[in-house]
Design brief:
Bound molecules: nicotinamide-adenine-dinucleotide
Oligomer: single chain
CATH topology of the largest domain: Rossmann fold
CATH class of the largest domain: Alpha Beta
Number of strands: 8
Helix content: 25-40%
CATH superfamily of the largest domain: TPP-binding domain
Number of helices: 10
Length: about 250
């Protein structure tokens, strides 16, 4: 089949699907100018690997360095705008209430800024903070600010970005809802993810085992191509509107 035929066939499946699930990764935000982890290792950060920055151990050892890296990422993301891929997903959900479950590994909030609601954010939110250790009665995220990264004035507990770091568990309820959507969908689109981070990547196999049609949308080969029924090679901002923009 040609690319155009593949695209048309997937579009028909999406149109006929009672329930569509979409799993997105950093590639969906690439055309908004948000760097993937690897791209974010530029300039000052080029000498660190993500595993040396996005872990609890790294934060405990070098809280200022890790906080500064997240501040850099927050600045980059704050300047970015949702692209046609984010908007196509939000538009589909508006026109077809209760038919789409949007699951993302992204922490950038661009799906939400595009108007998507009920997004299952498996890896947390870049712009929110949480306590590093279990909060004590003196810990108030809104109020007390001492030092950088800011700490509770009462007990010294540090604020950290509310993202899931390497080696940390995903939010249980969010993961369970994503797995349920993968089991219940007729079509799963896997968009802009390298498919190397589990358990998120496992959703493709879960969906296929339950009988869904699994479609990978990516500019390059991925670890999940072998699981997919169809691979659409191309950019999310071009392909998602093609797949989702029918009435
Ligand atoms: P990844 O960086 O491992 O892979 C990105 C994938 O996107 C690649 O397969 C690449 O070929 C593809 N891609 C690049 N541009 C694309 C485009 N225009 N259209 C379609 N595909 C495109 O990202 P990942 O798989 O999401 O996993 C990395 C982890 O990093 C995740 O856990 C995520 O939480 C985190 N992360 C998030 C962001 C963000 O929130 N935007 C950014 C960096 C990293």
């Amino acid at each position: 089949m040609t690319v155009a035929q593949d695209l048309a066939a997937v579009r028909e499946r999406v149109a006929a699907a009672r329930h569509l699930a979409v799993l997105t990764g950093a590639g969906v935000s690439a055309e908004s100018g948000v760097p993937t982890f690897r791209d974010a290792q530029t300039g000052l950060w080029a000498r660190f690997r993500p595993e040396e920055l996005a872990t609890e151990a790294a934060f405990r050892a070098h809280p200022q360095r890790v906080w500064d890296w997240y501040a850099f990422r927050r600045e980059r993301v704050a300047e970015a705008q949702p692209n046609a891929g984010h908007l196509a997903l939000a538009g589909f959900a508006r026109r077809h209430p209760d038919r789409l479950t949007l699951i993302t590994q992204n922490v950038d909030g661009l799906h939400q800024r595009a108007g998507s609601t009920g997004v299952l954010a498996l890896h947390g939110q870049l712009f929110e903070n949480a306590w590093l250790d279990a909060p004590q009665p003196c810990c108030d995220l809104e109020r007390e600010r001492v030092g950088s990264p800011s700490a509770c004035a009462g007990c010294g507990n540090l604020r950290r970005p509310a993202v899931v770091w390497f080696g940390e568990a995903l939010p249980l309820k969010t993961l369970a809802a994503a797995q349920q959507a993968a089991r219940a969908c007729d079509v799963l689109l896997v968009v802009g993810t390298s498919g190397q981070v589990y358990p998120a990547a496992g959703l493709a196999q879960t969906a296929q085992d339950a009988g869904a049609h699994v479609v990978v949308v990516n500019t390059a080969p991925t670890a999940l191509d072998a699981v997919a029924d169809v691979v659409l090679r191309g950019s999310a901002a071009l392909i998602l509107p093609e797949l989702l923009s029918f009435k």
